[in-house]
């Protein structure tokens, strides 16, 4: 679900802003989009309330990234209503996209390595893995610290 639609609490709005900040630290040329999905009946049919989706667009095709845009999906476990706590981050999925198709994806399961037809550079993979570690820290998930990719 679009991040802009999910920001219904101060805690989640602050977390979404922090996610944008973490990506912009590593990719300063990226332009954030908090509404990557269209608002139409077909898209709403596949709406996932437990995800926060946002994208980052680059000024052109990036040879290091092997894409033009990143779609970032955060899978969350909601905090109890009225608790004032941030939701718990269960996982991150990052997709590298061009106008034509998905080029690669990196998920925080298994070995945290990208898969796809056109993989990003080793340095970019390291930056994406670092961002994912920072996001788990941001959402306060200490249980996954020992299992995350180095």
Radius of gyration: 15 Å
Described by its quaternary structure, the protein is single chain
Strand order of the largest sheet: 1-2-3-4-5-6
Secondary structure: number of strands: 6
Largest sheet, strands/sense/barrel: 6 strands, antiparallel
| N-end to C-end Cα span | 29 Å
SS element count, helices: 4
Strand content: 25-35%
* Shape estimate: globular
- Share of helix among residues? 25-40%
> Mean of residue pLDDT?
81
What is the H/E order? HHEHEEEEEH
Q: Decide which structural class fits the backbone.
A: alpha+beta
**Regions with little confidence, pLDDT below 50 for 5+ residues:** 42-46, 142-148
Plain-language structure description:
The chain is an alpha+beta fold and 150 residues long. It contains four helices and six strands; from the N terminus they run ααβαβββββα. The protein has a six-stranded antiparallel sheet. α2 runs antiparallel to α4. The chain starts with a helix and ends in a 12-residue tail after the last helix. The model is unreliable at 42-46 and 142-148 (pLDDT under 50).
């Amino acid at each position: 679900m679009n991040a802009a639609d999910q920001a219904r609490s101060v805690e989640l709005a602050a977390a979404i802003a922090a996610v944008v900040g973490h990506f912009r630290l590593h990719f300063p040329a990226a332009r954030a989009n908090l509404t990557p999905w269209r608002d139409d009946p077909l898209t709403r049919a596949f709406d996932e309330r437990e995800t926060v989706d946002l994208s980052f667009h680059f000024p052109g095709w990036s040879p290091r990234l092997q894409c033009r845009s990143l779609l970032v999906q955060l899978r969350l476990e909601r905090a109890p209503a009225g608790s004032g706590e941030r939701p718990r981050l269960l996982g991150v999925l990052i997709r590298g996209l061009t106008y034509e198709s998905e080029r690669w994806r990196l998920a925080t399961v298994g070995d945290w390595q990208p898969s796809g037809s056109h993989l990003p550079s080793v340095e970019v993979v390291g930056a994406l893995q670092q961002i994912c570690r920072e996001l788990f820290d941001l959402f306060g998930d200490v249980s996954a610290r020992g299992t995350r990719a180095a």
